[in-house]
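Sequence in, structure out.
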Amino acid sequence: MAELLKGAPVAGAITRRNIQAVEELEGKGIKPTLAIIRLGERPDDLAYEKSALKRAEKTGVQVKQFVFPADMTEKNLVREIKKINEDDSIHGVLMFRPLPEHIDEKAVCETLAPEKDMDGITSGSMAGVFMDTEIGYPPCTAEAVMELLDYYGIELKGSKVTVFGRSLVIGKPVAMMLMRRHATITVCHSRTAIDDFRDAGRRADVVVSALGRGKMVGAEILGSGQTIIDVGINVDEDGNLCGDVNFEEAEPEAAAITPVPGGVGNVTTAVLMKHVIEAARTSSH
């Protein structure tokens, strides 16, 4: 039976460190503050916002919510972001995406100051990830994967890691972060030949799946004795949450595996608060 890599203990450990860091900053008169920008009422945005607010309250991070109608113009949104950039009381920003279709999302994201970008949505933040510099912050979910691997003591140096997915949200940044830890990385995606896909999955020591396709990664793609990190959040035919990995097929052969729900997702908001605290600390120097 595989070790179950649950996210709650990881999030708890990060939150305890975060609480201590907030107390230290408050002792210096600094209140770490996050701005949340949301357009409209998309259910997944509302669910993550609720989770972030709960984590912020537990941690001691202050949150300012900027909620706008879904038909807000791009010009007005850019103006609001510029105001937030100039507000020294706000240390970090989380903006929900995708933005409504009438808005040029890339242009809007570039308006945000990289030092206030808590979730890797600006080119400045992504440059920091790819060039290993201290510009901005990586996407919270990508860093949550790293936090989970570290917490459970998964050896990365010299390990073969296969990443399924190449998005800028998870696949590409997590590959760079794993490479920084001296793992050997293979990235597979929708245009990878199926035989190569299977071969990369079977020979990996660690598999990170971020495809966004429910239960796609099954026994025919996986090997034995692997650590499997399932980042996917999908809904199956019965209306239940599931990951990219077919848990029932993978778990008997794996050494360790994350559950969905209850795995990586639990860690993400704790990482978000960690970023806000780091931004507040940096701004005080």
